[in-house]
Amino acid sequence: MVDETPPGRIRIWYVSGQRLCNFRCAYCVSVNDYAKSNIADWSDEDRSRFEKVVDWIADRPFRVGVRLATLGEPFASRPFLSKAAGLSTRPNIDFVELLTNGSLLKRRLEQLDREGDIRKISLWVTYHPTEIPLARFIANARFAQERYGCFVVVNGLLFPDNEQQVVDLGRAAEDAGLRFNLDLGYDPLTPHGVHTELGAMVPVLREQAENGIDRAIRLGAHPELLDLNMAAMRDLRGQMCSAGHDYFYIGIRGDVYRCSRYQALDKDRIGNVLDEGFELRPAGEPWTACGAGFGCGNKEDFLHLRRRRPTAGPPPPSLGWVERDASAAAGRARRGGVPGALTHAAPAGPSTEETH
């Protein structure tokens, strides 16, 4: 029986050790010991862990929405898709969100439809302009949304030299009827210890000609959530957060933390889902003080800070998407906002194990 009572609905961000990717993006955040590969997919140990962690999630007695992330491209790995499909069939699973470059959607979505409940599949589709033509990228994302009914978000990354590509992507997404999100591009080589130095971590913030925050907002980033992102990276002292109550992070080896920032700091590890008898026990209080100090750059984490103003209606089937206030969007449109920029969410940053 599935527990429907609060905090009976839990969101989990799980990063697996799947590494194979068909792209070669220079700014990929999958680096160091768990860098993506254009040749290798899994180690036997990582694949075994992945299968066990997914089975553990599937067996929870409460409702779960999961962002099932990888180090590479999930649609390049049929074993990964098979487990994701199986997870989507479980009655306690609200949604399974996959982070993808979108290049293989037309070829591989059929597997998810055949083996799983594709109505529960959400896709966070990030555009990498050096690797795929825009027209093909948009066509693939639209195919997923229209042919299979997937919840699709088209995601753009803002760097100092790609403003026109961001504008083109936003317009194309709007023309195709796709949700569009704008993220700040991060420097994958920035160590966690300097996350307060935002110019070191976020290249657009190093610019002198125009303030990087102003530029991001001009191109459609959500002002309130962008402010939340910057504040979470600078100083978390005294901030209340629901992580550990209704949201958890699971790393490659199965270790559980309240969020990815705690994982990066190896702070207050809750346990490991692969340990016999491990039970996830959410904090009794819905809000607890964050002890990370600073450096919270992942949207999956900082969207659980109490200072974020909640949106009306049920939560979306995504750990990254936030619906934009309709009246604010309409006002922006009347002021001549960037096409496709009316429903952007806040930028996300890398954890030590994140991809895309």
From TrEMBL:
Domain Radical SAM core: from-to ranges: 18-126
Annotated region described as Disordered, given as residue ranges: 307-356
A Pfam cross-reference name: Radical_SAM
Keyword Nucleotide-binding: no
InterPro entries: Aldolase_TIM, rSAM, rSAM_sf, Sulphatase_maturase_rSAM
Record-level Gene Ontology MF annotations: iron-sulfur cluster binding; metal ion binding; oxidoreductase activity
Keyword entries, A-Z: Iron, Iron-sulfur, Metal-binding, S-adenosyl-L-methionine
Family in the record: Belongs to the radical SAM superfamily. Anaerobic sulfatase-maturating enzyme family.
Protein name per the record: MoaA/NifB/PqqE/SkfB family radical SAM enzyme
The organism of origin for this protein: Actinomadura coerulea
